[in-house]
């Protein structure tokens, strides 16, 4: 709630000209209540602001600054409604773009059939009908077979809030019979949802990065977070056996990054040792579509910079790991 409230207040502060952007360094150490105090003291007239969300934030700023829980809840709710409306508008725009791009695509096209299958498998996973889209049994299905499985579940589209799942359920029967129009709609919805999810992820990463401004490896909590962020890649690279490995327990975050950077360089140059080839194959193979592979990819991409003492890279990796963990908790996968 505090994060949502602060975001609403920051947006209003930018609109009021109190700060240049949400990335303003002085915001990182500012609480939601302090942001409300600054906004309230600005004297901006809420009635003269066209944006309803900004107007509401200005209107409630004084009460939020004074510690009113009701005002905090109201502003958080208002911000969430605004966020959902904006996200819905973006998804609809993305869908229109996807529909144009997919015009003429047919399920007889193996590549498009695979796209449709991925979209339906994502819906099956959201519905709890399969555990993971990477399950071997699920991967054996065609788009039509996956749709038939979804249709057979008898889900009521009217009772489903998730737009991607609802869209897939609505056309599952047609897609199961080979209807390419239905397939194009499911793929368009899936791709639009992916674009919005990625946008949201990058936004969240930037927010977490901002909160980490000034953090360095002398901060035990930050160093611990960085070490946890490189752990999956250290295991994948064959440098340690797991979190209980004595070498890992004694290793500092910066030393882990140095070892990982050397390993990443070796892999990228195709000079893997025989001992690490199997784990590297695991990263590029079955795990490539999983959450763990994303964590490995992020760590490998930033390891060299971190090993060279670039704290910005360290903060980015920690932020990416934190956001990825939240996505995993809420099962937001594609």
Structural notes for this entry:
This protein has 334 residues and is mostly helical. The protein is built from 15 helices and no strands. The protein has helices spanning 2-15, 32-41, 52-65, 69-102, 110-126, 136-139, 143-152, 163-176, 180-211, 220-236, 246-250, 253-268, 274-284, 291-307, 311-329. Helix 5 (110-126) crosses helix 8 (163-176), helix 7 (143-152) crosses helix 8 (163-176) and helix 10 packs across helix 15 (311-329). Residues 269-289 have low confidence and may be disordered.
Low-confidence segments: 269-289
- Secondary structure tally: strands: 0
What is the CA-based Rg, rounded? Answer: 24 Å
Largest sheet: none
Strand content: under 5%
Relative helix content: over 70%
The number of distinct helices, counting runs of at least 4 residues, comes to: 15
Quaternary form: single chain
Structural class: mainly alpha
Mean pLDDT metric: 85
Distance between the termini: 26 Å
Shape: flat
SSE pattern, N- to C-terminal: HHHHHHHHHHHHHHH
């Amino acid at each position: 709630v505090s994060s949502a409230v602060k975001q609403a207040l920051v947006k209003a502060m930018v609109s009021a000209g109190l700060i240049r952007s949400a990335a303003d360094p002085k915001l990182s150490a500012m609480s939601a209540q302090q942001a409300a105090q600054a906004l309230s003291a600005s004297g901006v007239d809420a009635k003269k602001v066209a944006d309803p969300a900004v107007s509401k934030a200005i209107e409630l700023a004084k009460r939020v600054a004074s510690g009113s829980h009701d005002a905090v809840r109201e502003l958080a709710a208002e911000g969430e409604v605004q966020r959902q409306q904006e996200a819905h508008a973006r998804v609809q725009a993305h869908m229109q773009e996807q529909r144009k791009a997919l015009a003429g695509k047919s399920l007889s096209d193996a590549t498009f059939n695979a796209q449709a299958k991925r979209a339906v498998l994502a819906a099956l996973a959201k519905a709890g009908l399969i555990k993971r889209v990477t399950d071997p049994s699920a991967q054996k299905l065609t788009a039509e077979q996956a749709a038939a499985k979804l249709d057979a579940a008898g889900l009521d589209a009217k009772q489903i809030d998730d737009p991607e799942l609802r869209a897939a359920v609505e056309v599952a029967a047609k897609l199961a019979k080979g209807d390419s129009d239905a397939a194009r709609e499911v793929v368009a919805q899936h791709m639009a949802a992916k674009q919005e999810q990625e946008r949201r992820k990058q936004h969240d990463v930037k927010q977490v990065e901002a909160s980490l401004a000034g953090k360095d490896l002398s901060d035990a909590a930050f160093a611990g977070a960085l070490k946890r962020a490189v752990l999956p890649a250290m295991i994948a690279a064959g440098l340690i056996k797991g979190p209980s490995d004595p070498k890992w327990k004694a290793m500092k975050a910066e030393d882990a990054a140095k070892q990982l950077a050397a390993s990443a360089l070796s892999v990228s140059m195709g000079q893997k040792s025989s001992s690490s080839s199997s784990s590297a194959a695991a990263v590029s193979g079955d795990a490539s579509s999983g959450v763990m592979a994303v964590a490995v990819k992020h760590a490998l991409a930033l390891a060299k910079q971190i090993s060279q003492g670039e704290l910005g890279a360290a903060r980015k990796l920690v932020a990416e790991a934190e956001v990825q963990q939240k996505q995993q908790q809420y099962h937001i996968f594609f």
